[in-house]
Please model this.
Amino acid sequence: MAEADIDRDRIDDAVLALLYLTVHQRAFGGARAWKGFEWETLGRLYDKGFISDPVGKAKSVVLTEEGLQASEALFNSMFVKTRNDG
Model:
């Protein structure tokens, strides 16, 4: 697969959705989530304003209010069964 064939926005959406699984502490206007994902993706999510700067010793990042809302919405759309799913 060629590097140009990779849709990084879709990867970012999937990682942002999966961050919702690891939310472990709600904070003012956001929430903490474990940051065990590929660094380039976390950097892009930071650049998009969804998470705090992932660089540092902390094992988690803070999802911004916008990031938390997007994370929950993406998680629900990608991973929550609907009545039609069975």
Notes: The beta strands are 23-27, 30-34, 60-63. The chain is about 45% helix and 15% strand. The mean pLDDT is 92. The chain has one domain: 8-78.
